[in-house]
Amino acid sequence: MAVLLLLCAGAGWMEINSYSETDQLRLARWSNTVVGADAIEVRAWYGYIRSSRGKVALKTLSFSGQAKVKVTEEIRNDSDGKTHYDWEWNEDLSTKREPEWMMVPKNYSNRIQFAGFNYGRFERRGGYYMGNSPNEVSVINLVLVPWPAVVGAFGIGPLWWMCERALRKWRRKRRVAMGRCGECGYDLRGSKGECPECGGKPRERMVREAHPTPEGLGGVK
Ligand SMILES: [Zn+2]
User: Fold this and answer.
1) From ligand 1's centre to the CA of 178, what distance in Å?
2) How far is the CA of 96 from the centre of ligand 1 (A)?
3) What pLDDT does residue 204 have?
4) Is pLDDT at 218 greater than 60 in this prediction?
5) How much is the pLDDT for 97?
6) CB within 8 A of 199, min separation 6: which ones?
7) Is the model's pTM score more than 0.90?
8) Can you tell me whether residue 123 is helix, strand or coil?
9) Distance from residue 201's CA to the centre of ligand 1 (Å)
10) Between 198 and 142, where is the model more confident?
11) Cβ neighbours of residue 17 under 8 Å, at least 6 residues apart?
12) How far is the CA of 180 from the centre of ligand 1 (A)?
């Protein structure tokens, strides 16, 4: 519960922050392999989490294909076929670059727009990210989620828990005021001490509330 509350507060802070600056976490995974005297095979995947303008964007970009390049010693060293991992935290991007992809561009397909949520997909064949590469395939998936939805998702659990606790407390109070066991609701007006039904010990204060005076009890009948 504490973790959820913390996440909820964190999301709230990010939402407020997103109106004044853009933050981004970029994850990357790529590998380059030399496949000939003038060609390298490229496989790349990028994941972005970006917070801006009251929304959080999740974007993946992947592309692969062969690129025609003159394979120099430097490129040969760089294109070792190994998978590389990398991440980068960018703070306050808005001062450097417009947060242009806090919306789904019009040329994306499978566009979904619902209650502030957005989705779009973009597929391209042919050289784009890799220059002269006719067999390159690139795919972009973009999801936009309003920060309030994230705050709500983390906050609903703790809120439910607090409501239930308050409701339980109120029920117990009402039962005791009616001269019943606070735990199970058994009628305690004829008994003293523990509840014969569930063994619940009525607290001193509760007993006094339930039975103001011995005379009072008789007088009600
Ligand atoms: Zn009871």
Assistant:
1) 13
2) 66
3) 45
4) no
5) 58
6) none
7) no
8) strand
9) 8
10) 142
11) 23, 51
12) 8
CB 103 within 8 A of CB 119: no
How far CA 136 is from CA of 40, 42, 76, 132, in Å, comes to 12, 9, 20, 9
Alpha carbon of 194 to ligand 1 centroid (Å): 8
DSSP state of 133: -
Crossing angle between the packed helical segments 147-177 and 2-18, to the nearest 10 degrees: 140
3-state secondary structure of 160: helix
pLDDT of residue 219: 45
Span 81-92, pLDDT tens digits = 899 999 999 876
Going from the Cα of 190 to the center of ligand 1, the distance in angstroms, rounded, reads 13
Three-state DSSP state, 187: strand
Asked if residues 60 and 140 have their Cβ atoms less than 8 Å apart, the reply is yes
Residues with CB under 5 A from ligand 1 (ion): 181, 183-184, 186, 195, 197-198, 200
